[in-house]
Amino acid sequence: MTSHFLKEQGAVMPVPEAFVSLVSAVSDIAVIVDGTGQVRDLIWNMETPRGFNPKTLIGHPMEDLVTEECRPKIRDMLDKAEADDRPKWREINHLIGGIDEFPMRYQAVPAGDATIFLGHEMQAIATLQSRLVEAQRALDEDYGRLRQLETRYRVLFQTSNEALVIAGGKRHKVQEVNAAAARLLTRDAEELNAKPLEELFRGEDQVMVQEVLDRVTSTGDSERFNAELAGTGVQIDCKISAFRAVESMMMLCSFSTSDRRNDDEPAIEEMLVGMVGRMPDAMVLTDEDGVILWCNEAFLGMSEVPMVAQARGEMLSRFMGRPGVDMDIIISNAREHGRLRAFTSLLVGTYGSETRVEVSVAALSDAGRPSIGFVIRDISRFDQIPARKPSPSSESVSDLMQLVGSVPLKELVRASTEEIEKMCIEAALKKTGNNRASAAEILGLSRQSLYVKLRRFGLLESGGR
């Protein structure tokens, strides 16, 4: 600035140039404030922001040039300078037009009746502090995500039913053991930590395990081997996979007990297949369209097919009931309800033999390949047991008998025919589970004709579909 002054006993004293040089050397800005708190002059020793003239600060109260929370600091600094107390550095945020907040670090020095605020620019430090705060916030977020990932890893690792061991370092020492592995090894996880991985196995297998570890380390490929655990005698299958954590190579070891079966103890699955194959009732497995995938010996006998291979790939409808009728009903019910119980049908053999059968069906949708299982029971032996033949109800017969002599025989026959027709429709509806479309197919009628007869006999209220 061109003029610098101090007040001394009411007079304006010019500031020596040596003093100005000294102030410029020790501060970025020097604000000269009189006893009333007004800015009388300043020394601006910084780069001037674009669009700002430092002269505009002269003549304003020093308190008006700072933010609201810094005004008590300015009053306190003025009071202590007037009391000639030892000055202290205070951080002040200026409010400068076009710059918003401008951080400074001031020290108030008394100079006669005036006070000189010697300041250092804090913009660079404020920028660094802002970056530090942002970096700290990002670090906190990353730390939170890391804690979440670690928690998920711990939960999955410890709750897994698969026995898992993590080893690392040049000696492949155990670093992590989950609960399933600790149970399999019959030792606490703390006892296993820092133990070389090969020492988990019996002495005879340790050289082989070490060779596997060396190969996995050098190639990075996973390997499997079978060995016996030390101290337990349990034979296990082990899979070792390598992965890199930061700068070290780690090993993930998955243990599972060897599934070795004795020759005289067939598997449960084999026992079930053998049992189903020898059942006296015919059993058939088809895909969802009714193509035979498997059948037992009883079905081969009933269908007069010599070999299973000859039946495989054939449509079950070739042997079951009337083509396009019974199988459509069975498959549609299996798809809709998942099962069908005791459906009466007719099984026709390759050479024309007919066997009355009762069919139970289950849809196997949980398997990887949707299929349908059939249990077919021969009920033809029940036909030989004398049974009361179905007949019209006693009321219907009585009504017809009372009409003899009063109406012609032709009309009596028509009435009895309608009664029998109604009974047949009711039986078809019952057999198809009240499915009118299937009932029409069984009766050899069109759906329109069946609806006409249902309306005529008052059977539309039965709620079929």
Q: Care to describe what's here?
A:
- This protein has 465 residues and is an alpha+beta fold.
- It contains 14 helices and 17 strands.
- It has helices at 17-26, 71-82, 123-159, 179-185, 189-192, 203-219, 268-277, 297-303, 308-311, 326-337, 394-402, 409-431, 436-443, 447-456; strands at residues 5-8, 11-14, 29-33, 39-44, 89-96, 100-111, 114-121, 163-168, 173-177, 223-228, 235-245, 248-257, 282-287, 292-295, 339-348, 354-364, 371-378.
- The strands form 4 sheets. The protein has a 5-stranded antiparallel sheet with strand order 4-3-7-6-5. It has a 5-stranded antiparallel sheet with strand order 9-8-12-11-10. A 5-stranded antiparallel sheet has the order 14-13-17-16-15.
- A hairpin with a 6-residue loop joins strand 10 and strand 11.
- Helix 12 (409-431) packs across helix 13 and helix 13 (436-443) packs across helix 14 (447-456).
- The longest helix has 37 residues, at 123-159.
- It is elongated, with a radius of gyration of 50 Å.
- The termini are far apart.
- The model is unreliable at 1-13, 260-265 and 385-391 (pLDDT under 50).
